[in-house]
Amino acid sequence: MGSWGRLFPVLLMGFLLGLHHSTAFWIVNVVFPPNAKARPASNSTPPLIIIPGSLGNQLEAKIDKPTLVHWLCYKKTDHWFPLWIDLNMLMPIGVDCWIDNIRLVYNRTTHRSSNSPGVEVRVPGFGQTSSIEFLDQNKLSGYFHTMVQHLVNAGYVRNETVRGAPYDWRLSPNENTEYLEKLKDLVVEMYEQYQQPVFLLGHSMGCHYVLYFLNHQPQAWKDKYIKGFISLGAPWGGAVKALRILTSGENDGIPMISNIKIREEQRMVATNPWMLPFPNFWPKKHVFISTPTFNYTHQDYQRFFTDIGFQDGWYMWEDTKNLTGDLQPPGVEVWCMYGVGLPTIVTNIYDSEFPNGDPVDFIYADGDDTVDSFSMGLCKLWEGMQNYPVHVTEYRGLAHLDMVYHEKVLDQIQNILEGKSETPREVETRF
Ligand SMILES: *[C@@H]1O[C@H](CO)[C@@H](O)[C@H](O)[C@H]1NC(C)=O
Ligand SMILES: *[C@@H]1O[C@H](CO)[C@@H](O)[C@H](O)[C@H]1NC(C)=O
Ligand SMILES: *[C@@H]1O[C@H](CO)[C@@H](O)[C@H](O)[C@H]1NC(C)=O
Ligand SMILES: *[C@@H]1O[C@H](CO)[C@@H](O)[C@H](O)[C@H]1NC(C)=O
To answer: Which among 132, 137, 163, 366 is placed 20 to 30 Å from 57, CA to CA?
Structure first.
């Protein structure tokens, strides 16, 4: 906030230039997305609700803090200010203020997370598209903007037929019941307004939110209100990357913040333990983290959390492992779309600096550079497990974040919304 105001333009340029295209999962980093060219507008625009991934919508905060981590941090604000993305996180002291504002405090007795003392957090723009289109108020870090613009060119209307359902992505759905009720109300509202069932579209972790939501609705309700679920790049079996993030942090190419610094924030976010690779699906012997003294499989999560010095993480994992951990079918028609053909880390190898240094080596498998295709392909299990079809499309050469921008994906989404039934099994996206 405030005191570094004049430095912002300079920093912003550093921020923009430093971001590598498509390295991120938790941090959205495509700043200048390609232009969306939709086919001519059609009059078939069934209502659509977009559920973003982790870090995928704006958050705002208001503070009146009892103590400060640094005297330069703001102690009290009268207004709501951007917490995500807050460019102060790029400053040497600003990052400490930011972490102290965005962190959650976990209580092992109640199994609940709360905001840092003296911090209120709210999610702006529920039911609108603004807070998922761009993550910052200067409209520089575009996320769903390209897709929404594509839909608008195809006849959709922002805040009306296409809406966003942003949420506090620091929390897992068991701690976000109010959000899930709002989502349900939004579905019903759009259904009644347009006299048609509604499509849900999720990206990455947002797909787990959608699955959790659908798993908790009666089948008759889904039959009536939901037209289908479009899932983009869902880590259905969890993400190996979550383990690395919790171990040694991951700045995802943001300059000026070290991995070990951002780890402080990443360990406070309950959704990171939730996304650990799901034991029901991964082979018992698969080593996710290898160190000179121990090889960690999913049977060793308790020891893992002890060894990295983050015991709360074990409780957070216990609280969240059953939320979507058995992949109950959603009970609606599904289009499961994800990238393949890129080397993706499935084992992180550390030297003796574990857990305070970066991995020194990796083992790769096929995936979208962030999540492996084994995990994303688990939606195939639903074929035959529910009364509705499951369509799976693999995009060869497409990176995790590019799922929300690539014209071939946007085209396919338009086809689905227009009711064109043909769904390719594989699409080549490399030139
Ligand atoms: C956790 O919650 C319990 C019950 O509300 C409370 O008594 C306890 O003080 C809390 N623990 C911490 C560390 O805040
Ligand atoms: C959608 O809602 C937001 C927030 O109220 C507003 O700023 C924006 O102009 C609206 N967009 C349209 C196209 O109505
Ligand atoms: C971990 O697994 C690797 C590969 O199988 C093996 O070479 C190494 O000895 C194991 N390390 C420990 C500490 O068990
Ligand atoms: C999670 O699921 C397992 C296996 O289905 C069950 O034994 C366990 O009690 C569940 N735990 C919670 C906290 O619901």
So the answer is: 366
CATH number of the domain where residue 317 is located: 3.40.50.1820
- What's the domain count of the chain? 1
Q: Which of 107, 114, 116 to mutate to test the pocket of ligand 1 (most atoms within 8 A of CB)?
A: 107
Instruction: State whether the beta carbon of 114 lies less than 6 angstroms from ligand 1.
Output: no
Query: Are 277 and 240 within 8 A, CB to CB?
Result: yes
Residue type, 179: Y
- Does the beta carbon of 107 sit less than 6 angstroms from any atom of ligand 1? yes
Domain that includes residue 205, residue range: 5-56+132-428
3-state secondary structure (DSSP) of residue 380: helix
Residue 271 belongs to a domain = yes
pLDDT digits (tens, 9 = 90+) for 318-366: 999 999 999 999 999 999 999 999 999 999 999 999 999 999 999 999 9
For residue 111, the CA-to-ligand 1 centroid distance in Å is 10
Per-residue pLDDT reduced to its tens digit, 25-54: 334 334 444 455 666 666 779 999 999 998
What is the number of residues in the chain? 431
Pocket test for ligand 3, best of 289, 295, 347, 362 (most atoms within 8 A of CB): 295
Residues 6+ apart with CB under 8 A from 359: 244, 248, 348, 349, 350
User: Is the distance from CB of 134 to CB of 298 less than 8 angstroms?
Assistant: no
Contacts of 7 (CB under 8 A, 6+ apart): 91
Q: pTM score > 0.85 for this model?
A: yes
318 alpha carbon, closest ligand: 4
Q: How far is the CA of 151 from the centre of ligand 2 (A)?
A: 15
